[in-house]
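Lay summary

Proteins are chains of building blocks that fold into shapes. Our project writes down both the chain and a compact code for its shape. Here are two examples, one after the other.
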Amino acid sequence: MNVQKHLLLCATPTKQKCFKGDEGNKTWECLKKTLKNYENDSSSRNIQIMRSKVDCLRICKNGPILLIWPDGIWYEKVSPEKVSEIFTSHVINGNPIEKWIFKKTPFEK
């Protein structure tokens, strides 16, 4: 499998330090639905995208946090309302949304 993007969402931390309430689960459900719609769209460009719900990304502020690998782009305060725009602009079209990024740590390929 040739994974081109892997989305890691801090959605259900054991110790909620970066956000309170159910925002992580709501964001996760929206991300799952967005990715499923993309996979079922016959016009998709066959980009292999994976998603993982993680307990904690060790940032512990301004969550939920979404890390897009291998780009090394860290988005903060990711809500269901932001998921679709991040997915379309960054994941599909390669245009990160600067106003929501708080960290960049590109990984070696």
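And here is the second example, written the same way.
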Amino acid sequence: MPLRFFLARLIDLVVVLFGISIVVFLMIRLIPGDAVAIMLGANTEITPESIAELRGRLGLDRPMIEQYFVWISGVLQGDFGTSIWTGRPVSEEIAANIWPTIELTLLSVLFGAAFSIPLGAFMAQARGRGSEVAVRVGAIAGLTIPSFWLGIVSIFMVSKLFPGWQALGYVPFTQDPLGNLSRMILPVIALSLPMLANLSRLVRSAMLDALGQDYVRTAKAKGAPRRVVVYKHALRNALIPFVTSVGVSAGYLLGGAIVIEQVFAIPGLGRLVLGAISERNYPLVQATILVMTAGFVIVNFLVDLLYAVIDPRISRR
């Protein structure tokens, strides 16, 4: 990969992250009403003195530009502020809840990506057959079924069929590997099903296009085995749009994990940010949203680099 291409993508990443920080910073400050009064209204009597005290504690009595630079300089040093209700650093609150979300998202991406490739290749090879139509209908259904509904239904089904199966809650992998994986099976399936359905249809379309190219016909004319033609020649070129879609899907899965964590009682960033919103915990909401959106952008940055590795022509443009 040329250094010039890497530096160009890195500059794009920095610019996008800078823009995201501005949007996140302004998001709560520009909403109608007084955010400080709203936060105080949750648990205490609102008085001008209490509003002024909290406004000064949060630095909201300063000019907005100064507020931003104070906040972003702290973020760059790993200081996201202090949680209003617990008094703990926000970075500690996030660190204590981020690993379940990362695990859920990574397992969902791996599950969806791993099964979509053979499923899409099968649909491309069996085009027009009854089995291919059945799988394609199932893929379309997977795109239309909401993840939270599938999660709720799967919990009820498991409780009926396997009463001893613990489907809710979370156990760290280092503490109980089998218990961790058994609890993650259902949320991973529920979260990754739309991704699996979408990617398998994408692989099918890309494979059909690749199988009609001249180099594939040449390989067939040379007597190459069908398996080699399909999986070595056609599939490799079909993976280029696939990799890009995986990166975008990973970002959406990170957002979808918020709902799934609520359904399966997983103590991740989703439950943390929803609890912070309900408590009007202003610094925690701001920091959690920044971390999740930055994660989305960084994943797509890595996908851009991988895209150039798969197809070196991209880095020369």
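What can we say about the second shape? The two ends are 12 Å apart (CA to CA).
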